[in-house]
Design a protein that fits this description.
The complex is a heterodimer of chains A (268) and B (502). Chain A is mainly α and 268 residues long. Chain A has nine helices and two strands. Chain A has a domain of 161 residues. Chain A is 65% helix and 4% strand. The termini of chain A are far apart. Chain B starts with 16 loop residues before the first strand and ends with a helix. The chains are: A mainly alpha (268), B alpha/beta (502). Chains A and B meet through helix 6, helix 7 and helix 8 of A and helix 3, strand 6, helix 4, helix 5 and helix 6 of B.
């Protein structure tokens, strides 16, 4: 088990050394931005920013293909669902699957519309931007640094520890799933499509093992004073350099500006 | 700010640990796990807590660490004082810097991703200033020989080093009492010896050590005191220098100096039929430039039970998985005898809990025969035989994961047994089991080796030399990339010669 699914070794030096609080703030700011802006060009700019951020990872061909496949699936499913279920007018219908029905038992019908597809494309840009930024932050930050950063950002300690621990033990869970499948093969199990429902059984020992591990881990960290003090120190302490401080200020200002703009436009 | 160095404690307290009339009952249980336990341990002593699995050792240790009653649901009576602190009324911060706790599996305790961060974790929790943390981390790295691994991921360390890291992380908090719950169970003899050496160094520095362990032959030579727990009661509290009472208390808890089992040896059943032949096999991990072992030649004969011993990382599990045909050797080949209606080999891995994936014990035992498309009568016959052999009567409708650790191990072995493999392979089946349980398991398995219903041969890996010499016909030792083969009698003579007599 290499146990290293996350961490600085996956990132280029500039991203690996970036203060994790800045990365988390970047994800937060980008989330605010994609909610506040509507114009496709602005959303495309958000995606481009997230894409540039993700270039800080040392991508491998397999990883690029996997992420591209996931993003394509997000775009396709969002566009398709919005294309069929877009409820606003006007709508330019491309084709109809179930015609609309009026009368005593009305049914709006199921039809693919151009406006729905466009709306879906815009929504998928929102998802892609936040997903890319979140993925890059998670992959480039080790669980320990993440814990320190979340604690420093005043995230409640149990929540911060849970997040960091989930990242820490995810590789172990993946390995345990492989061990269970191997154990079944040792006892003669051979996969076939008819046995797909049995595949769920793989999770049973993994979950039981995770619960036992959680109990031991809880005892161990409690005995090491996890809940001993309201606040903890960090080693090495997080320290932002000048550039990171400026970036933090710019992002906070941008967030405040975007939220103000949206409130002014929609409600004032 | 309170540092562990200046933790306020009762310097005049005559004992490091004082337990008076301790009883504890978990909420879900009707009967108490601990009954009226009373003892006191002087400062700087090394005490071994012995007892069968489920006797209440772990509960007692958790009470010493203050986890009971502060972090457990149950009823406690009596008093536990550690360095003068009553565990019920003392703050978590003071308890954490007074008592250290080391558990069985290092992987379940390490919560960070670098060696340095793991040592710093407890110190950060105590809110020590970063400069003091830096000093203590550095000191712990040097003291426990981990300096070269400062920035390593803990999973890049061997099992022994990982347990040493846990000890380093706890020691960095400068506890005055160190409580260890079966810390050796996953360590080979070399790593166990190193771990005990570290404990002795801590004891020499004034730390009071309390350790619960099944590997008594290795631990007792270091101990001053022995506490024996039976069914939640303290039944013996003796100084280990008094040899006679110690021996009498431990006859049922250790394997002792018994000769290799020969009465029920399958030698009588042993025929020259070869179950497997290993011809000049070698293996190299994909990320390594050298073989883990090479030119390995051996035979496994029908009716025999072979113990595979060696240090952590010597390739025992790899060899077992190759015998289970889960991979191919880098060089050479393994020829298996194929028998009709039998799988060639079934391996029970070390993490037995991961082999229990069915909803009930019955389904678990039926899984193998059903995969082999056996008829219902055959499935039932095999399950019935396994239930008798592994004492699982009354548990058939229970979920396997809800059973006790010993019952889960028995279920996993029984599930492999019902597959009726030609070769049954067991990776560390005795880990964390007490001596009577191990004896019962191995005796049950040995009784079936070479019979029509049992496996033709068994190969099991173990760190426990007493188990190897007592229950195997032959011992394979993996060391320095080579396999050495000895008879049980020869191995017994060798290993007892280097053990500390007791």
């Amino acid at each position: 088990m290499n146990g290293r699914l996350f961490g600085g070794h996956l990132a280029r030096p500039w991203l690996a050394s970036l203060d994790p609080r800045v990365k988390l703030l970047f994800v937060f700011s980008l989330s605010i931005a994609v909610v506040c802006v509507n114009h496709p060009a602005a959303l495309a700019a958000c995606c481009a920013t997230a894409l540039f951020f993700s270039l800080g990872l040392r991508w491998r061909r397999r990883g690029v293909l996997a992420v591209a496949a996931i993003l394509a699936l997000v775009i396709w499913s969002t566009m398709l669902s919005q294309g069929f279920f877009y409820a606003f007018e006007p709508r330019t219908i491309l084709f109809t699957i179930v015609p609309a029905r009026s009368g005593p038992d009305p049914f709006p019908g199921v039809a693919l519309s151009v406006e729905g597809l466009q709306y879906g494309a815009i929504q998928s840009l929102r998802l892609i931007a936040t997903m890319l930024a979140g993925l890059t932050t998670s992959l480039s930050t080790g669980p320990q640094r993440m814990l320190v950063a979340l604690s420093a950002l005043r995230v409640p300690r149990p929540l911060a520890f849970m997040t960091a621990t989930a990242l820490r033990f995810l590789p172990l869970l993946i390995e345990e799933v492989a061990l269970v499948r191997q154990a079944r093969r040792y006892r003669g199990y051979r996969f076939s499509l008819a046995k797909v429902p049995q595949e769920v059984g793989v999770l049973l020992p993994v979950i039981a093992s995770a619960l036992r591990r959680a109990e031991n881990l809880a005892e161990s960290v409690t005995a090491r004073g996890f809940d001993a003090r309201r606040r903890r120190t960090s080693y090495p302490p997080l320290k932002m350099n000048r550039l990171e401080q400026v970036a933090t200020g710019v992002m906070l200002a941008a967030c405040a500006g975007l939220i103000t703009y949206r409130i002014w436009r929609d409600w004032l | 700010m309170t540092s562990a160095l200046n933790t306020p404690y009762d310097a005049e307290a005559p004992h490091a640990v004082e337990v008076r009339g301790l009883s504890y009952r978990f909420v879900a249980r009707r009967t108490p796990t601990l009954h009226d336990v009373t003892f006191a341990l002087p400062r700087g002593t090394f005490t071994v807590v012995a007892g069968l699995t489920g006797s209440g050792k772990s509960t007692l240790l958790r009470a010493l660490a203050g986890l009971i009653p502060n972090h457990a649901a149950g009823e406690m009576a009596g008093v536990v004082q550690v360095i003068g602190h009553d565990t019920r009324t003392t703050s978590s911060a003071v308890l954490a810097s007074t008592v250290g706790l080391v558990l069985q599996s290092p992987d379940d305790q390490i919560c960070t991703t670098t060696v340095e961060a793991e040592i710093a974790f407890g110190l950060e929790n105590l809110a020590l200033p970063p400069t003091e943390i830096a000093g203590r981390v550095q000191a712990a790295l040097v003291r426990f020989g981990l300096t070269d691994f400062r920035c390593s991921h803990p999973h890049e360390l061997s099992g022994g080093l990982r347990q040493r890291l846990v000890l380093a992380a706890v020691s960095a908090m400068h506890p005055q009492v160190l409580v260890c719950d079966e810390p050796l169970s996953q360590l080979d003899s070399e790593a166990a010896r190193e771990f005990l050496t570290e404990l002795n160094r801590l004891r020499a520095a004034g730390v009071t050590i309390v350790i619960a362990e099944h590997r008594l032959d290795e631990v007792l030579p270091h101990a001053d005191r022995l506490l024996v727990i039976d069914d939640g009661r303290l039944v013996a509290d003796v100084a280990t220098k008094d040899e006679a009472p110690v021996k009498s208390e431990l006859t049922s808890l250790r394997f002792g100096d018994a000769a290799p089992a020969s009465d029920d040896s399958p030698a009588a059943k042993l025929s020259a039929a070869r179950v497997a032949v290993l011809s000049s096999i070698a293996y190299r991990y994909s990320d390594s430039s050298s073989d883990v072992w090479s030119n390995l030649d051996a035979e496994i004969l029908r009716g025999e039970c072979i113990a595979l011993v060696g240090l952590n990382g010597s390739g025992k599990s790899t060899l077992l998985s190759l015998l289970a045909q889960a991979g191919s050797p880098t060089a050479g080949h393994i020829a298996m005898s194929t028998e009709t209606n039998r799988p060639d080999a079934v391996l029970v891995p070390q993490q037995v809990d991961l082999t229990l994936f069915s909803r009930t014990v019955r389904e678990e035992l039926e899984f193998g025969p059903r995969q082999q498309r056996c008829d219902i009568a055959t499935v039932r016959r095999r399950v019935d035989a396994a239930v008798d052999l592994f004492q699982l009567a009354g548990l058939l409708d229970e979920p396997p994961q809800a059973l006790s650790r010993g019952q889960r191990v028995r279920t996993a072995l029984a599930a492999a047994y019902t597959c009726r493999p030609t070769l049954l392979l067991l990776d560390e089946p005795t880990t964390g089991q007490d001596a009577p349980t191990v004896a019962a398991l191995t005796s049950a398995l040995r009784a079936t080796v070479g019979t029509d219903d049992g496996p033709a041969a068994i190969v099991f890996s173990t760190h426990h030399t007493a188990v190897a010499r007592r229950f195997a016909d032959r011992i394979w030792t993996l060391a320095d990339g080579r396999l050495t083969e000895t008879s049980a009698a020869e191995f017994s003579a060798r290993s007892t010669a280097v053990e500390v007599p007791r």
